[in-house]
Design the sequence.
């Protein structure tokens, strides 16, 4: 297989150990003589995988008692609707830090009164707002912790006067999280914890069932809690891949160890961006993400953008083109992205600087 440095924003690089383990399950799942994508989701073998996967989540994130981890379909985009459907009774508050945060607020507005308490849209979402007031009469406050398109991240668990809900699609399992400060955390798996096709939901059990509206069966969190995420056939392949990815993460030393590695990777690349006169970081320094590093050519070298893209491609870089809405470059340094890839990108940037002095 061709060796590349995979910086795709998602679906993203996954651990080779996990991929190979799932290949074995595709051929023969736990000695059943069937592939994992053929076996009944009601079998004892699959039931064991579901329980083990939830247990891995609870162990790796130190999730306290009273919470359940659900594995659902529909992506984070469906959660944009499920959250207000299950939690919005009178008013909801949202922090607008990017496209996905704005989309989640839009869905809430379709359910009831949803207000934006602060936004960074004025500067194309290049910072995390500060100094805002969360209305204490809100049913919940919704945040998007990492913004893949713009390279900003909320890296601390805030103290919130109302129930806190977070979309952690692109930074879950990359850093320690105090789950007890949230009533619900959700996200698509296709960044740090698996392939596309499964959505994780960490929900505090006693926080659901409070609204008085009718909630369609499939959109009701209680449905999935009561049925251990198997009200309907779960996305078995994606969950199997998640299971093996979490096992890999545990072998690396868990979330605390991977966070240290992630910080080192991000710091190495940010240091080069700040040092190299050909490049400029786009996110404000106090809002920088350690998952998605976004940068552009310096104004005087703007005409060199395509040339750098060509050199990067020649050096095996994949997925560093910035999102179509902002342009420039983006390197996504998710958990399974090795330090060697970051070092290779830095070397490529230095080589380009030498060529264009």
Sequence:
């Amino acid at each position: 297989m061709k060796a590349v440095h995979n910086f795709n924003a998602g679906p993203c690089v996954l651990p080779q150990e996990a991929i190979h383990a799932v290949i074995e399950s595709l051929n023969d799942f736990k000695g059943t003589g069937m592939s994992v994508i053929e076996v009944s989701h009601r079998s004892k073998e699959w039931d064991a995988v579901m329980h083990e996967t939830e247990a891995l989540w609870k162990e790796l994130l130190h999730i306290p008692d009273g919470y359940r981890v659900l594995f659902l379909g529909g992506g984070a985009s469906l959660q944009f609707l499920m959250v207000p459907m299950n939690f919005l009774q009178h008013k909801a508050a949202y922090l607008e830090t990017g496209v996905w945060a704005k989309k989640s607020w839009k869905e809430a507005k379709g359910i009831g009164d949803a207000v934006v308490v602060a936004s960074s849209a004025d500067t194309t979402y290049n910072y995390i707002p500060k100094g805002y007031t969360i209305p204490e009469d809100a049913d919940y406050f919704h945040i998007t912790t990492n913004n893949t398109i713009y390279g900003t991240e909320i890296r601390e668990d805030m103290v919130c006067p109302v129930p806190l809900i977070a979309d952690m699609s692109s930074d879950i399992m990359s850093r320690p999280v105090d789950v007890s400060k949230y009533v619900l955390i959700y996200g698509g798996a296709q960044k740090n914890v698996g392939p596309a096709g499964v959505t994780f939901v960490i929900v505090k059990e006693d926080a659901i069932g409070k609204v008085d509206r009718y909630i369609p069966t499939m959109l009701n969190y209680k449905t999935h809690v009561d049925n251990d995420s198997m009200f309907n056939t779960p996305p078995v392949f994606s969950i199997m891949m998640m299971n093996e990815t979490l096992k890999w993460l545990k072998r690396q030393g868990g979330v605390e160890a991977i966070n240290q590695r992630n910080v080192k990777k991000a710091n190495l690349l940010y240091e080069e961006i700040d040092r190299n006169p050909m490049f400029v970081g786009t996110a404000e320094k106090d809002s920088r993400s350690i998952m998605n590093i976004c940068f552009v050519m310096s104004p005087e070298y703007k005409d060199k953008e395509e040339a750098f893209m060509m050199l990067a491609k020649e050096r095996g870089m994949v997925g560093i083109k910035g999102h179509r809405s902002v342009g420039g470059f983006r390197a996504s340094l998710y958990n399974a992205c090795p330090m060697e890839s970051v070092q290779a990108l830095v070397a490529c940037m230095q080589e380009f600087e030498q060529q264009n002095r």
Summary: Residues 254-275 form the longest helix (22 residues). The chain has nine helices and 14 strands. The domain at 254-355 is CATH 3.90.1150.10 (Aspartate Aminotransferase, domain 1).
